[in-house]
Amino acid sequence: MNDALLTASKPELLDKEGDRTLRGLLYDYFAFGRSLEACREIFAGFVDLSPTQYLILIAIKNSTAEEPMGVNQVAERLYLSGAFVTNEINKLVSDGLLEKSPHPEDGRRVQLALAQRGMSLLIRLAALQRPVNDALFSMLTREEFKVLSQLLSRLASNADNALKLAEHARATLKLQEDQNASRAKAPKLRQKRPAARHGPL
């Protein structure tokens, strides 16, 4: 394969057929991701929540007394901005699904917990989630599931760096292309011929 067409350069991502295996992995990942997104929307709609609100409730459900969740912890766990998560949490508190309480060690922070209404909603939702999640991951052994969980955690933690690189590289390449296009369009200046020299009269 022409190296100029490769979509990766790390040897670990390439084989004798170039980047064909990488592309196949991404096609499969996108297909599975679309299914996950669709399932998330079905779950959220079942209990009249937005997909993000659904994720927030699930994340807080999985917090512990030893590691209670505040706004920042929820945002970090879901890889979302703090401002966006704050707005969604305030809606959930207003709807009586979440409760806020002062952090016992830091008065500037709050702890989040499910209200009784939020707990009842998630119990109702779990009856739908169980068979769907079982089907999504039914082909995995326990060991394969653990490996997948670890790999996805590592990939997700690095995704922001890759996104920032993509934005920077796009801007740099676009600037280079614009500069090259400008040079190609610039009129070429004619060189002045030196004035003829006349000998002494």
Automatic annotation (TrEMBL):
It comes from the Bacteria. Residues 174-201 are annotated as: Disordered. Residues 22-157 form the HTH marR-type domain. Residues 185-201 have a biased composition (Basic residues). PROSITE patterns: HTH_MARR_2 (PS50995). Signal peptide: none annotated. This is MarR family transcriptional regulator. The lineage of its organism: Bacteria, Pseudomonadati, Pseudomonadota, Alphaproteobacteria, Hyphomicrobiales.
